[in-house]
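so my prof wants the structure for this chain in the tokens format not the other one, which i didnt know existed until like an hour ago. anyway here's the sequence
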Amino acid sequence: MDGMAGPRAVAHCILRREERVLLIRIEDPATGQTGWRAPGGGIEWLETSEQAVRREIREELGVELDVVKPRGVVEGFITWKGRDEHEVVFVFEGRPSDWGNLAAADRVQGLETSGRVLDLHWVDPAELYARGEAMYPEGLWPHLLGHLTQRVRPTALCALERNGAVLAFDLWDAINQRRLVRLPGGGIEYGERAVEAVRREMREELDTELADLELLGVLENIFGFQGQPGHETVWVYRARAENDAIYARHDNVAREEHENVPLRWVPFEELLSGETTLVPEGTLELLLAR
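here's what i got, hopefully its the right format
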């Protein structure tokens, strides 16, 4: 194996604005698979990792970093444009001396030296993680979520049912090799009641108002997903969507802030057989009890 090229050394930077981080949305042109990564790039010959991350942020985002703190080193493996790539990623957390236009909008355009435009978004990493979205490298998750590991997240979910099936979206836990599904819904905002949150989430995601809304129960969910811990309190509702088109479609799409998430009608037989697990634990029992 001597003489073969080793992994490529790169430096990525986490930039925070309260609970949001600035991440680049990526899409593999060969497969259409999407995911996220932090801004940064390759470390050049005779350049330290800190020098590299400062240069990359200057080139891509047009700002100088005032504070740079090393957070660790992780390995990254990805198939990109049909090729397997291996990188050693030096992870930093930084703060610009002047944010410029970076903090003015939820979506930002960056520019690589090659001229390729970068699609950057201020996103809540906890929301990306909960939806099972891909992060490159996967080892970046603990650094993105570290400030949230002791926060209990309140959420509100809604069950819409049709002919012995419930509308849900698929998740895949690669660490535990588990196929999961979860009801649509999302986080409860500050000053918002759970019932107001579930109505807002369904309005935003599926463009529907809710009728016959019923609280089935409240679950405490302490869980692991993709190797990371989580803790949430979940209000589980059942309702009828006033938008009848939802029931007429074989599949639906929930509009999230930065992407569309496919939903399908999951038969209760599939859940009862154990082929697929409805999360959080206890949700299926609430649905079957009434």
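also thought this was worth mentioning. Helices lie at 49-61, 125-130, 141-145, 194-206, 245-248, 268-272, 283-289.
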